[in-house]
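Renewal narrative, Specific Aim 1. Our central claim is that a sequence can be written position by position from structural information alone. The example that follows is taken directly from our test logs and has not been curated for this report. It begins with the structure tokens describing the chain, in the order in which they were read.
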């Protein structure tokens, strides 16, 4: 094993180091334009970052080479933690890095020593100082062994999958595991490489953990799509996180929208072949990194599809039209929708108000509470000309108490309900038997 020497000055920039390694591996003569952008972001970006690039861009390869660059720059104290959705995925990346250490001449000084660690679970570079943590360790994101690890650079590659985030409970479990990465990262030390936490992945839904981390945990995020996107209009699928170089090129020349961003790697013809064999939502997700369509497929009902207007129950509009333009947005009403579902909308047009004395169909729908902490919910809905108008809704955890039944009776009387619908549950009979009380209340209040 050669003795470690500082990396030659001409190879110290990460772009030069990567170019050298790619040529040694006969993979490419030089990184593509977008790959150089990713490398620059890895080296000079914030310490907590999420990299989202089109499928096939090579972000895992680039980040693996970046980890080797860090180890080559400071093999004594650098500790890299490779995190995958499963331990097997992390082991694949680790074994590939170890193979490069043995095959590339400028990395051979990092070969594990004969008396050093060199197992599948973790290995030490040759010059590493004695430490509990190996130079490179692999672990699954949900593995109990994640607790107690220490690292200076954590690389989490595609940790969000359908199997570990299909339900809200699994999403919260994954979010808690990601919090552990913050606890195991070493503090900054003057004279050492900056500590980093790097996520590689593609958001599959607008409720994706990656997008939540960007919104709620102050992680920087950057997108590299396969084609130049349309200039920003009413909806920006990247939330201002598009790669600045791509954004500047589109702003300077909007006509390039739809052209490949990396023609050296994926040209127009190659993208067309792939797009022809995929659904529109898959193309938007995998190559344009726009998860809006996949979210619509899974959650077709959007808050933004509602029409919000003032109704007093005395009359309903005969004609009411929906629109989503800037003039229809209700900016001062908080919308709790996901992703692009950000605004409620007022009607674009209302005509022909019809009084309740001419036509009135109004239902009080009740969803009784079950056992435990379930709420009993109700809604008052009127129907006219094929439209449904939600006049009032509410809920309570007080079950079927006299006070609750009184409230329901008063709501039915106020809106002149023509029918009461109770959801068929084990509590339906209990609630129905209690309706005699509500009739009494209505009589007393009348």
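The sequence written for that structure reads:
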């Amino acid at each position: 094993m050669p003795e470690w020497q500082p990396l030659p000055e001409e190879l110290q920039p990460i772009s030069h180091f990567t170019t050298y390694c790619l040529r040694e591996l006969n993979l490419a003569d030089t990184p593509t334009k977008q790959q150089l952008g990713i490398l620059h972001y890895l080296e000079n970006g914030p310490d907590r970052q999420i990299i989202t690039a089109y499928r096939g861009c090579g972000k895992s390869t680039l980040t693996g080479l970046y980890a080797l660059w860090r180890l080559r720059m400071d093999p004594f104290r650098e500790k890299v933690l490779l995190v995958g959705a499963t331990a097997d995925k992390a082991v694949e990346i680790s074994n590939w890095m170890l193979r490069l250490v043995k095959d590339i001449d400028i990395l051979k000084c990092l070969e594990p020593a004969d008396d050093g660690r060199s197992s599948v679970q973790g290995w030490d570079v040759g010059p590493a100082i004695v430490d509990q943590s190996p130079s490179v360790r692999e672990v699954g994101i949900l593995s109990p062994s994640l607790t107690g690890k220490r690292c200076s650079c954590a690389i989490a590659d595609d940790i969000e999958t359908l199997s570990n985030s299909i339900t809200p409970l699994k999403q919260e479990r994954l979010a808690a595991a990601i919090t552990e990465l913050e606890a195991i990262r070493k503090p900054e030390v003057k004279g050492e490489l900056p500590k980093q936490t790097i996520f590689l992945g593609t958001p599959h839904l607008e409720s994706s953990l990656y997008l939540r981390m960007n919104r709620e945990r102050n992680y920087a995020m950057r997108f590299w799509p396969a084609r130049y996107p349309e200039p920003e209009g009413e909806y920006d699928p990247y939330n201002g996180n598009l790669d600045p170089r791509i954004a500047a090129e589109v702003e300077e020349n909007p006509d390039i929208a739809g052209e490949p961003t990396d023609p050296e790697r994926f040209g127009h013809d190659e993208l067309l072949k792939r797009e022809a064999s995929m659904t529109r939502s898959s193309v938007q997700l995998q190559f344009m990194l726009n998860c809006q369509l996949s979210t619509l497929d899974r959650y077709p009902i959007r808050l933004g599809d509602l029409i919000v207007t003032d109704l007093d129950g005395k009359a309903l509009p005969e004609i009411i039209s929906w629109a989503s333009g800037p003039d229809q947005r209700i900016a001062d009403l908080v919308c709790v929708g996901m992703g692009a579902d950000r605004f409620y909308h007022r009607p674009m047009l209302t005509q022909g108000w019809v009084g309740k004395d001419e036509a009135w169909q109004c239902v009080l729908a009740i969803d009784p509470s079950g056992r435990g902490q379930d709420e009993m919910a109700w809604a008052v809905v009127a129907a006219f000309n094929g439209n449904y108008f939600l006049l009032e809704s509410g809920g309570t955890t007080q079950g079927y108490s006299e006070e609750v039944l009184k409230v329901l009776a008063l709501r039915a009387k106020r809106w002149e309900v023509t029918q009461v619908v109770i959801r068929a549950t084990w509590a339906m009979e209990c609630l129905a038997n209690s309706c005699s009380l509500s009739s009494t209340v209505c009589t007393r209040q009348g």
